[in-house]
Amino acid sequence: MSALFASDSPRVLVADIGGTNARFALAGRDAHGAIVIAGRHDLRADDYVGLGDCLEAYLATLAADDRPHAAAFGVASPVAGDRITLTNRAWSFGVAEFRARFGWDRFEVVNDFAALGHAAPALKPGDWRSLVGPPWPEQLPRVVSLVGPGTGFGVGAVARGDGGYLVVPSEGGHASFAPFDALEAEILKVMLRRFPRVSNERVLSGPGLENLHAALAEIRGAPASGLAAPAILEAALGGADPLAAETVERFCLMLGGVMGDIALVQGAGAVALAGGIAPRLVEVLDTPAVRERFEAKGRARDVMAAIPIALIVHPEPALLGAARLIFTH
Questions:
Q1: Domain 2-104 classification at class level
Q2: What fold characterizes domain 172-312?
Q3: Are 245 and 292 in contact (CB under 8 A)?
Q4: Comma-separated ranges of CATH 3.30.420.40 domains in the chain
Q5: What distances in angstroms separate CA 216 from CA 69, 103, 157, 189, 284, one per listed residue?
Q6: How far apart are CA 146 and CA 128, in angstroms?
Q7: Using H for helix, E for strand and C for coil, what is the string for the chain?
Q8: Where in the chain do CATH 3.40.367.20 domains reside?
Q9: What is the pLDDT of residues 222-271, one digit of tens each?
Q10: pTM of the predicted model over 0.85
């Protein structure tokens, strides 16, 4: 691994810590000065009591000369103060505690979608896959909304100003879910019997896909299957299960509508889609029906029609963004 980095480049530990997986890698600069990500390991959070144990397992795989002296993490939680508690995983850690425990000279922690925001200006044309609508621009617009369903529902933004780019973290995934039509009003009614409040994350996430599938089963009078999100996706994409297919199609329509809402609220000129679920649904998302839901904003339709949407297809954007926190800030 050391051969990938310039001899005088520091090694930095970068991580993308979600509710389901913890992704670790080393970052450094190559002989041409470009940031390089190497040695990535994805670890299942369920296999570890806490983030410290998970991190120790990764560090044990490194050679002595690859041990990092600085680290930067994107975490699926709000970041305020020293104590960090993940939103969808019973893990917490102290920033000062980890810096001392692992001997780091510098340790940066940001929200995972803030890490994506730091990566966005460095992504190349091949790192974006445009969806139906206007093509993705060569230069990022002044404001780009960042949206992504995974274990939770991530939201953020990156804004371009005269002095460079400003990354804006957000907990917008916890905004209230708003039905678009009679079926979605019925879905909301069913879900309100289970939850005191229904946020976008309750519908547009891995657990949200399960909630949506269960709600549609009740509405359609079908037996409750209790399928987990991966099984719902497999059944839908395989074409063998009409209820799973309806669930996935409705999920994508709702996502289109919420992406449009977020773009309106943030004044965005483009929407970047990320998260663990979207890449598996790209053929369902890249349709006129989803685009129609994105644009269906009444008197703002003309505004929406000009906004492109693209899926980030870079293999590790959050890790790149974490690395840029150290090397460019």
A1: alpha beta
A2: Hexokinase; domain 1 (3.40.367)
A3: no
A4: 2-104
A5: 50, 51, 32, 11, 18
A6: 13
A7: CHHHCCCCCCCEEEEEECCCEEEEEEEEECCCCCEEEEEEEEEEHHHCCCHHHHHHHHHCCCCHHHCCCEEEEEECCCCCCCEEECCCCCCEEEHHHHHHHHCCCEEEEEEHHHHHHHHHHHCCHHHEEECCCCCCCCCCCCEEEEEEECCCEEEEEEEEECCEEEEEEECHHHCECCCCCHHHHHHHHHHHCCCCCCEHHHCCCHHHHHHHHHHHHHHHCCCCCCCCHHHHHHHHHCCCCHHHHHHHHHHHHHHHHHHHHHHHHHCCCEEEECCCCHHHHHHHHCCHHHHHHHHCCHHHHHHHHCCCEEEECCCCHHHHHHHHHHHCC
A8: 172-312
A9: 998 889 999 999 999 998 899 999 999 999 999 999 999 999 999 999 99
A10: yes
**What are the tokens at 265?**
């609220």
At position 23, the amino acid (one-letter code) is R
